[in-house]
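This is your field. Pick holes in the following sequence-structure pair:
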Amino acid sequence: MKLNFCEKKKNVVIACIVMTLCYVALGPAETVQNIALAESSDIALEAGYYSEIAKYVGATLVSLVYHSFYKWAGIKVTALATALLITGLFWTMIWIVNQYVIYLGAFVTGVGSGGMWIIWPMVIINNSDDGQLQWNMGVWFSCVSLGLIIGGLCNYFYFDNVTKISETNRIVIYSVCAAVTLLMALVSFFGVSEVRKCKDIQAADEEPMNKETTRKRVVTAKEWFRKMCRLPAFWLLLLPLIYWGFMWGLAIKMLPTALASISHQRDLTPLCTVSLGAAFLVGSVLWTYSTRILGNTISTIIASCLAITAVILCVLVLPKDAASEILDVETIETYITPHAAYGVAIGACIGLSDSGISIIYYSVAGKVYGAEGASLGYSVNNLGFSIFYILSMFAPSLFDLHSYCYLMIGAVLLMCFTLTVLLRNYMSIHEAPHEVLDDEDL
């Protein structure tokens, strides 16, 4: 008797559920942190940016030790540990002691979230059959955005008619985030498993085991890195991370903070999060289908144009200094009259563009890294992203928001050129490039 719902499919479903729960909590918690600190405590708004730096220092460090820990602890313990660590920031925002304790909590959360962005793409790659990788990756990213929508909607309705975030508001928000994350930890531990079965379990049990497969040598981390260092594509994959780190710095921290300077209503920030998540969800579905029709190259160009549109809107609508302080709404100066609809439009453009770029980039990276190198490859990927995201958190102290946006346009163009020209051999949806090294080249 055939089992229609095999272990591989189950793991893909678990990956989707976990990332949905993760961003139900993590997305809204990050976007309101700066405003919550400024309005419900005596800690300066800048502490929110510095806590993000601490968070991604943690994410950077976990990239260096993740592979070894995963090999020692196994997938269940690794999934449980990464989920539990994400709660670090939530506890310190519930019981605020001082900014240094918040930095410590953010560092712990960074270790957890950094591990999440390694383990779950790895699960998707290792559990995707031939020709299904890009499809599964698209579904997985859809679940990330679904989490942003659910969490954003909860905050939106909770902040209805709120013009200043109180201490009670802050405690309720982060308590709910902690509870959702603990649920995610249980789903991670009891749900995910190492792959032991294939699509047709009965057929696999009946066929004699291939001796060559059982004798296949496991590639060590050192051998994998030696192999990757000989591939130009491995190094080229680092260039789009400049765009990614700086774009998410804008979307997660600077944009939500700046919106508080164009409206007295605090529900505008979660509304923008909902817009971002909804656009990411719709985009994930549209790009999953459209890439099969238009191809990855044309899709990347369209997504890049949407990203540039979002950045230009930021320049037109948001005040120059709105990323570093909450300004008086009555005295701000902008190129066009601010309106809540513009904030929603910026979130929508970022979501639509980044959903397509994310699907394409992670699929291209999966072809370069290979299934056996997925954990190592995404560790490198997470390390690069974390470094550029950390740099983006220094921007409000060094540049005004408009100068940052001009730099972002250059980062988008570099990302587009890298994927469509320099990595064009890896942009095919179904076929892996012929130049990828195999085990015989080690």
Summary: DSSP finds 17 helices and no strands in the chain. Residues 297 and 420 are 5 Å apart (CA to CA).
